[in-house]
Amino acid sequence: MSEHLPILMVLVPLLSAPLVVFIKHRKASRVIATLACALSACAAWTLALQMSSAVSYPLGGWRPAIGIELRVDFAGAYVAAIVSTIATFAISLGTRGTREDVVGREMFFYAAFLMCVAGLMGMVVTGDAFNVFVFLEISSLSTYTLVAMGKERRALTAALNYLFLGTLGGTFVLIGIGLMYQMTGTLNAAAVSARIREVEHLRTTHVAFAFLAVGLGIKLAVFPLHQWLPGAYSQAPHAVSSFLAGTATKVMYFQLIRVVVSFFGVAYVFDTLHFGDFLLPLSLVAMFAGSLSAIFQPSLRRLLAYSSIGQVGYLTLALSLGTEAGLNAGLLHLGAHAVTKTALFLIAAAFIAQVGDDRLDRLSGLGKRYPLLSLGFVLGGLSLIGVPGTVGFVSKWALLEAVLAGGRPWLAFLILASSMLAVVYVFRVVEVLYFRAPLANAPPLARERADWGSWVPAGLLVLVSVGLGVWSELPSEYVATAAQSLFGGAR
Amino acid sequence: MNALTQLFPGALMILGACFVPLFRGRARSAYVLALPLLSAAHLALFSLGHQGSATLFGYTLELVRVDALSRIFGVIFHIAAFLCCLYAFHVKRPLEHVATLVYAGAAIGATFAGDLLTLFVFWELTALSSVFLILARGLDEPERRERVFRVSMRYLVIQVGSGVLLLAGTLLYYQGTRSLHFGRMNLEESPGALFIFLAFGIKAAFPLLHNWVQDAYPEASVSGTVVLASFTTKLAIYALARGFAGTDVLIPIGACMTAFPIFFAVLENDLRRVLAYSLNNQLGYMVVGIGVGTELAINGAAAHAFAHILYKGLLLMSMGAVLYRTGTIKASELGGLHKSMPLTTAFCIIGALSISAFPGLSGFVTKSMIVSAVGEAHLLVIFGVLLFASAGVCDHSGIKIPFFTFFAHDQGWKVQEAPKHMLLAMGLAAALCIGIGVFPSALYALLPFPEAAAQYHAYETTHVLTMLQLLFFAGLAFITLVRLGVYPPELPAINLDTDYFYRRPLKRFVVESYALASWVRERTWGMALGLRGRALASLRRNHEPPRGRLGEPWTAGATTLFAALMLFTLLLLTSSAGCGGGEDAEANDARLLLDRVGAIEGVPEQAFEARMERVEVLRRLPLRGESLIAVREACAEMHGALLEADVQNALIHSIGAPDEDTPAEELARLERAFTAAEAAAARVVVHRDACVDGTATLRARYAPDRRGSE
Amino acid sequence: MSDAREPLPESAIERNAVNIQRAVVGVCVLLLLADVAFTFLGHRHTHFGFEGYIGVYALVGFVSYVGLVLSAKLLRKLVMRPEDYYDAPVVAAAPVSEPAPVSEPAPATEVAPDTTEDPS
Amino acid sequence: MSQSLGVGVALGLPVVGAALVALAGKRPNVREAVTGLTGLATFVAVAALYPAVVAGRLPELQLVEAMLPGVPLMFRVEPLGMLYALVAAGLWPVTSAYAAGYLREHHEQNQTRFFVCFALSIFAALGIAFAGNLATLFLFYEVLTLATFPLVTHHQTPEAQRAGRVYLGILMGTSVCFLLLAIAFTYYAAGTLDFVPGGILRGHVATSSLPLLLALFVYGCGKAALMPLHRWLPNAMVAPTPVSALLHAVAVVKAGVFAILKIVVYVFGLDLLRDTGASDWLMFMASVTILLASLIAFKQDNLKARLAYSTISQLAYIVLGAAMVTPDAILGGGLHIATHAVGKITLFFCAGAIIVTAHKTEVSQLDGLGKKMPITMAAFLIGSLSIIGLPPTGGSWSKWLLALGAAEQSPVLVGVLMLSSLLGIGYLLPIPLRAFFFDPPASPAREHGHGHGHDHDHGHAQDHEHGEAHPLMLVPLSLTAVGCLLLFFYSQHVVALLRPLVTP
Predict the structure, then answer these.
(1) Which residues of chain B neighbour A223 with C-beta distances below 8 Å?
(2) Looking at this predicted complex, what is its ipTM?
(3) Angle at the Cα of B412 (from B407 to B416), degrees rounded to 5?
(4) Most buried residue among B538, C45, D12, D251 by CB atoms closer than 10 A?
(5) What is the pTM of this model?
(6) A208 vs B24, B307, B571, CA distance in Å?
(7) CB pair distance less than 8 Å for D492 and B168
(8) pLDDT for A428-478, tens place per residue?
């Protein structure tokens, strides 16, 4: 059984999707979706915790390089575990607001959601370049659908925008893969990395990499290619935005790491192509511009969305260092941010369900009325800032050490300075919640109390993010192993 | 007994002072009077040579040191404390009693302090407690409040300033000598001593540092002035005598002190301020004595301080009584009071004669010691100055004070005689003045060098005669000048002294500086706020939706454009990497090569397949540069040879080991195969060596990969 | 204190003021004579040579006194000021706009509320 | 084992207290009783560690093996931390009693939140005191910032919010941008973050970058309010007065200077700094702060603002002590933590009592108040003396030791210390003296002249009849005033406690 875990992770959600449509039962569809995600998560966690080296799973028993190979290394298992868990949290215990978003379209919604999960998981576990594209498209198409299901009409515009840019990105990726195939004659990751050495000097290889990098850059929302993100995150149904915030960009980041490390090789990408010099300034701009924009956003979800753009900057910065320590920091931050941002989006969803819209002003003085939700937001926000005692600090610390080891203390200073912007936008919300009188002319709250479904998942995630901030050995050590195996394998 | 000597002398007064507010009315006054007596009894418990020590932060402190020098000051301070308390019997408010007792106690404590740190503590305590005596006047006279307050602040700053100088000096002294012992110090030996000297100098009212005396003392309450005049400056004299006896520079300083204030004393209208100047002048004698430093001189200084406290107290008491009864102490408003206050007048005259050193009174028997000491040291100029000053004292304290207060032109004051307790206090002081004047030997026995004192005879005919001449002719001069109308009239005015510098230019400087600072601050704040506002506005413009372009999604077209741009940039970067020639490219390729070589080296010999695969990779590396190509060629050759060897080996293996049945042709094949394999192996070795050599050269030329270590 | 103050009746001292002055002069003369007598009869105990002259202390006393008073009169021209000299406030000449800035700089956008109230 | 339990108990009690206070929120009497009792219990728990520390056994508690890779979350009670913990825990019950009186008399809102945050602040302060490595210190440093933020913005007025922003912006900004960077660099260079006697940096950091690293640490501890990062402190004066007392005397500012001292002693090591002269610039900066802040204090009419600038000046003393790195200076700096805490808290208590009882906030309004509130003003006088450093108060010993250290470095520094004492007389002593020796300002017109935002009616109300402050305020402020005097006689014990810091 356990050797089939890699394919199970993908297969369960993938097969559950049509099941949901066939059953056509609102409640059952939710239960099925939940179960599917949970199963997938179980598989991912089991794999992640029991593996001792990279797992290769030949699909249909065909040898790799001939058949399609699923290949899960430590980092992949780590990302898969995060993605599936967050999917479970986002869908299973989704808030009432989440459910209301999609009244009447539940089957399609859950089916699309499952497809999306399957696509993302597939991207993580596949060891084959073309399958990356296939799963990318599966996840992307379902995401467009999900975003379009948003309550407001602007959701359609956002979805269209996302569709356009996502397709552009997908196309670039496809072109990149095509060129890579042309040069190496294979799509298998291991084989590509072995053969790419011979063609490294050729212009076509460079172009292949450029297309892949830019294509993934769009999907990853690297500044200035992030334009789809705020709309998509803020207009999608709550469950979707929570899920996307924690997973979509993370998986793409993982893909970028694989392209750099597994396919093309660190030495080639950084020494020959100088990719680091290209990525670093963009990361820095993203860190500052994203956070600055977040400060001025009038709506809670847009604030969080722009904050994500800033956080992506940290991720790419870590990658741009081109060192194992950098990779380690990037992977850690991937996890930390996934947990934190999902929690924050879930809390935002709960708040919005209570007050009816997502303008920040509407939250005035709600800190007393919803103490737990507000406390959760504060703690999540602290993790976002990187205050010690939260998981955000652990990853930021790793990033700092990586940067310092690279001999660039000024970069460390810039990282910290941009954290200050996070302080500003987080405490903007805190101030509204706690230190403002409730709006005089506010319409009555939708409900007096937040239902447990809205805060329990968020609360759990917040607890995780705080707990891992103090007991950080587990993630730190695991990620260190992952980074080492990835990086060591690349040398 | 033993427990009591654990306390320092004066402690009873300080501790007792805390309970003064608990008593009411006469009981309080009686209690206050009893404390100095108790404390005096306490002092009597200490034998000469007693030393009490304590430790603090690892330093050994000498809390109590009783010797002849400290004892005489301790004794007179107790007498003064008692007289002051008696004089202040009428004061209802506990504040002044408490302040007096703490002040006196601290002064006594300081006198017996054996180390600099303890001295500092008491030194500051005298400053702190005494300021309340000045402030107290504000309570009685609301209209003077603001003025008194400012005076007291100036006083406090200067007094504490002396304290911090002492502290600084102590620190530096300790730095230099690793000792806190308060003994004879040498000005040249450490900068600390200089600081300490200055600290003492402030309290002893050295010229130019003197002004606080004239500023503060006349502003204190009726009894307060008496108290103030008794302790602080004499404590400083004691400290100088202890620390700087025989320091030459004190002689001119002291001479200056005797002469310089008398000019102001002549002009001054406020009679208590006249006495303050006169105080300064008297201190000058003592300072000169300390400067001369012979046994006689030190004796003289100590004795003069002793006598001085009494007669200066007496004079101030009489002036206080006048102030108490009339409400003014300005010479221009007083006169003719001898009719209504005859006893006060008498006491005042005794005091005046004492200070003028009239034979038979205390001033004569003490001052003459100093003058004699100066004479014995043959300091002609100083001697002359002291004579001149004696004539001056005769004027402002001996004649001017009693004359303008009690005689002169009758201003029509109809007031009562001073209260009884004041009279009693004055009477006691006057009696002591006379007593000392008549029986100097009692005082002489207390002096630091009693043997030297015993040999000194004040009442020597020449001395008495010359002193009388001096005084009477001075008086004659006064009469003459008054008769001629030349004597300067008493005018309601003030005279500028050194305090001008800190009360006008310095104050102006401070005010201007603050104004300038606040102007600069305002400007910079304005600019900073403007900048901040502009920065914020610009951030808002760029980031705040819906107008801010960065805070609002762009069109898909824009993003596409960016994507294209990025692609272009990335290609530009990579193409420069891929197609660039020259050293850089070669270095890159070298690294690439070395990298791969490293990969081979990592694979064990037995893993032939893997090794082959990597060598194959190496063979196909795209390389530029001759040496690189040479390595690659060697590699390729080696690859070929390896393959050849492999093939031959396989052949040998397939034939198997030869035996008797083996056909001849087979054997020949085997032999050929062996030969070929050997040749191939040899080629492998040759090319491998070439490869290794080339690699080594490359390694040396191109630094190892920067990520190699991770 | 009280404005209408009448001198008390003359005391014995006031009545005999001139006699007292005369007495002082008399004593002075006696002292000079004593000095002369002592110079010739007794042994004069001195530190410096000038002390040996007859009446030198008398001279010193008189001259010092007169000199002191006269020079003090000159000094008065230099240092005498009215009694309220120090009471005048010291005002800065530097340009300071009123009111002085408070410690917390208000943001430029905020306008202080108008606190002046119309009495009507 | 029992020792680490003791550390745990001392740290845990305030948290338990906070929880209980939150639960008892509806019943004020219970709530305040809980606060007071946990305060006392915490003090006892902290004091129970004292004998072990004096005996040289340093109680340890390790909670998490690796909070960061290779860096445990651990506590170790060393002498300096013991002192700071004693100060914080000792003044907490006093302050809570005072706060109870103050908040009730002043009819403040959100009292429960206040007490909860207060307890959490003490928890954080103890965490800082006991921190066994830089990461733990940093963790609790941030907790302290966050726990005190609601206290600063307690009134929730726009003014309070602005102050809160400045507070958070400067404290968090400096700690994140500078302190964290410095810590990260330290770890990168030295490979450890533990506090080790003698320091951990020797041989790991180039001499030329030591001053920069020190600067990052010192300005990273923004709570020390070293100029030019002092602005948060006067701003934070909008908070209720018990908060000011907490900020300026017990927890926050002391956390900053304590951290600096600790870092200098245990991270840099005195010898290293002395050998390299890396802290020379800091002496200059601290001196400038001492003098400038005193000069600014002169010009403040608002009582709390004046005290705030005085605090800035006094904190710079401790920083100066750390910068001078001579044994005496370090001891003096440590002692000054205690003496200044007790002195300044007395002053703030008095200021609060005056605000609540007499409704007066400006120095110029205090004339004659001594007649109505003699005990309060007497306490103010004693507190002032302690701050100035005059006998018979504890402040004189800390200044003596600091000056002793300064004498070893340079006479100029001695001059700075002496001058600042004189300035202290100028801006502090007139307040109690005027209160005792002047009449209350007679006409309301005079008060109106100050134009302090109150309308005319209020001006009359200010003259209402009042007596001495509420006993719940009066007793604490008397206690701390007595504490100032006691420290004069018992400073030896504090110095003896700290002695191991400078004698390896």
Answers:
(1) none
(2) 0.77
(3) 85
(4) D251
(5) 0.81
(6) 103, 109, 10
(7) no
(8) 888 888 877 777 776 666 566 666 666 788 888 888 888 888 888 888 888
